[in-house]
Amino acid sequence: MLNRPESHNKPHRVLVIVPAYNEAEGIGQVIRRLREDAPYADVLVINDGSSDATSRVARAAGANVIDLTCNLGIGGAVQTGYRYAAEHHYDYAVQIDGDGQHNPCDLRRLLSAQLDTDADMVIGSRFITKEGFQSTFARKMGIGLLSTLVTRLTGQNVTDPTSGYRLCGRRAISLFAREYPTDYPEVEALMLLYNRELSFTEIPVVMNERQGGVSSISAMKSVYYMSKVILSVLLMKTKKKRAWENRYES
């Protein structure tokens, strides 16, 4: 039986947030693997208005479930999890997809990286060692563009800005409970951390192909996604620059 991760003999409370929309096919296996590989963590499924049996399957597998009455999208679902983590005073909140792409066995490595670096967010990147599932060619091209953009805007090398496998410490939990991007928020969340002078880092993880369900980002939505995210991060960088200018002038 694994013990909770500890630093200076103090046990940490860890919450795994699993946003899920119509993931009944794979959510049960995700929760069972979490309970096997990370028994020290509490598992919270945010059922984002699913029309299938996602909620029932998640509860049967042993997770706590919050059922949203309508579909808020990934941003609203994830922020619900961060609000829960803040209200219940968790030390760490870990976002894991409900489709089986993320390996729960990597969770302890994310925690260790946070303790070693004291980063406010640790991101699991599939592109550092380039092992496991690497996404489709078209999506890799899009991710590469966003990676280059975020790297240049923040001055920090970012290889996998769209990764949904990420661990947050208390400062990031508090921020995201108050303010979190909507639609497809992973990239914008990094810029939000940057603007608030919080830190993030990446470690290598191995991801799987989707184990069930259907991706929320279709081919048609991909164009909208790229356009919106690029515009949003540029606007967020502009806000950061103006904030620094105002601070200097005052």
Strand segment tally: 9
Number of helices: 8
Derived from helix and strand composition plus strand pairing, the structural class reads: alpha/beta
General form: globular
Oligomer: single chain
Query: Into which percentage range does the β-strand content fall?
Result: 15-25%
Helix content: 40-55%
Mean residue pLDDT: 87
Ends: how far apart?
56 Å
| SSE ordering | EEEHEHEHEHEHEHHEH
List the uncertain runs: none
Strand order of the largest sheet: 5-4-3-6-8-7-9
Rg measurement, Å: 18 Å
Main beta-sheet strand count, sense and barrel state: 7 strands, mixed
Features of this protein?
two-stranded antiparallel ribbon; 9 strands; globular
Describe the overall structure:
- It is built from eight helices and nine strands.
- The protein is an alpha/beta fold.
- It has a seven-stranded mixed beta sheet, sandwiched between helices. A two-stranded antiparallel sheet has the order 1-2.
- Strand 3, helix 1 and strand 4 form a beta-alpha-beta unit.
- Helix 3 crosses helix 6, helix 5 runs parallel beside helix 8 and helix 7 packs parallel to helix 8.
